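Forwarding these from the shared drive since the link keeps breaking.
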Amino acid sequence: MLTIGDKLPAFDMLAVDHDSEHATSPEHAFKRVNQDSFLGKWKVLFFWPKDFTFVCPTEIKAFGDLLEQFNDRDTLLIGASTDSEFVHLAWRRDHKDLKGLSFPWLADIKHELAGALGIIDRREGVALRATFIIDPDNVIRHVSVNDLLVGRNPQETLRLLDALLTEELCPCNWHKGEATLHY
């Protein structure tokens, strides 16, 4: 698995666009993205195992609920799984908690990015619940991976992003606005 200091691998895939709900046809709901599409911005990239499941929508909604806070930090939120763009689109349109989410979902159907990141579950063949915080130069600054059965805490991801954005030493349980450490 890639780790802190590694570069985001090259990829090229379709994403379900943030305005997919209002697209008149599937072709207008998708856009092609690659590792340079988001260059110059902080990014939170999070993978979930499968669409149309039980734990995954709780996480996606929880990340979506924090979208404004990520935007306030000039950070892009990007979701991904190894399902196709058509499955993503259908799920976003079908699930009441996922309608109206305004961040892209990568369709890593060939396991291109998940494989390069090293986050494919060996038994199930799907992406693990992996979260990456990536800086404007596409360098990975944080990685966490959860078991397939256990959902993440997006608030913790936001806290970690805040700490990284300070570029200072942050003590245990530090939160935005608190004093950092000085040596």
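-- next protein --
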Amino acid sequence: MNHLLQKWKWPLFILLIVFALVGCSDMTEEGKAGKKENNQNYPEDVSENPIATITMENDQQISIELYPEIAPNTVANFISLANDTFYDGLTFHRIIPDFMIQGGDPQGNGTGGPGYSIEGEFSSNDFTNDLKHERGIISMARSNAPNSAGSQFFIMVADAPHLDGDYAAFGKVIDGMDAVDKIVEMSIDAAESPTMKSVTIDTMGYDYPSPERVE
């Protein structure tokens, strides 16, 4: 009897370890899935859309209503960066009349970001986003890679339907388009790029989750 117990002792021990590891792996995957699902579904609990306010160095302001129901992770990312004062002191480094103004790059030349990227919430990247790139819309800039957006964003000064479905639009200017138009009129020389004094968010009392990042 003792011989039989000794014979089966190690195989049983190894099986127990394997089952334990599989169980831990499943729990981890479930945890990840749950976190992703919670982050995607949080707009169901948002009673009022957040408002972002961009205050320029000349104290002109641009108020933007953000749409978490359209691009939840993009909105969460923008709010997170703004709350961390990431945008304060950055410029609109790219200004194209009759098209858009682009900012949010810590390098000031179109090559910088927050050190991570997020998934592109637009239709050609398998996300439902029907928001059109019309005058006043705010959307995320990116490289050719669909999941390469980070901190850079652009505000439309004219309609650009060719961008629809390929960039993550996530809000719209509700006040201050005159300030946007003023930026378009400014010099676009690097030394004179219009500077954002601050970007603040009124979350209407909702505690937004941290954005999901692309590893």
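The first strand starts at residue 51 and ends at 56. Residues 1-8, 12-38 have pLDDT under 50 and may be disordered.

- D.
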